[in-house]
Amino acid sequence: MTVVEQYVTDKNLKSRANLHARYGTKNWFEFVHAAMEWQENEHVADIGCGPGWLWSEVSSPLSILDGLTLVDTSQFLLQQAQTTVSALVKDFEPQALEASVCDLPLNDDGFDTVLALHMLYHVEDQPRAVMEFKRVCAEGGRVAISTNSLDNLARINQLGFDVFGAQKQDLGAVLFSPSRARELLEEHFESVAVHRFEDNYEISDAKDIAANLLSFPLGDAADSVRRKELAEALERELISVERPFVDTKVSFLLIAN
């Protein structure tokens, strides 16, 4: 399944987000907003905005921003994000653009902050994408990128490997690791601050693990035989409230100035 096919709707995103929503003890979106330390009158570009969860899940800085431009390759998710953001603050209308990250239809030096959160692992030409971020970022502005650690949800990824032959390590981090993110940013920016986010999950329902694995490549194309193998592997874990499946979420937010 291609990236475009993955995000024709929000089904796969919701399957993944459910795991974090049910079992997370910390809030990734709050973590991002706290690290960004938003200032009044910033003009922000949210590249790969998805359904706009960053702006809707927790108290966000929309009321103090000068403007927000939402960019995504999925028209469905982009429309969701625009509708969500427009409803949050009276008379706040974000701009929405369906576009490739490697060819942004945005003016040079047009934004105080450029966000690219958990999306560059979908991009084939990552260096070009980062150059585009720098081009549209104003002098004295900043670019924020996030990705997962290679050992993010290590036990769940091991299950995926055992059943589907998927990556043992986090797929997103394999395609775009925190070290690669830092390397690319340091080529173009004076300073890069690295913020680590970690949260322990105690998963009490095996169905939530299954839904997560079946939303990713290989899992999403699994036939009935593989799906049965996954169900059997989860049964062997004897997952319950009394005996939860414990795993750790680890992500990184990098802010370049």
From TrEMBL:
InterPro entries, alphabetized: Methyltransf_11 (IPR013216), Methyltransf_Superfamily (IPR050508), SAM-dependent_MTases_sf (IPR029063)
Pfam families: Methyltransf_11
Gene3D superfamilies named in the record: Vaccinia Virus protein VP39 (3.40.50.150)
UniProt GO molecular function: methyltransferase activity
Enzyme class: transferase
Keywords, alphabetical: Methyltransferase, Transferase
GO process terms (BP): methylation
Keyword Disulfide bond: no
This enzyme's EC code(s): 2.1.1.-
Residue ranges constituting the Methyltransferase type domain according to the UniProt record: 46-145
Protein name: Class I SAM-dependent methyltransferase
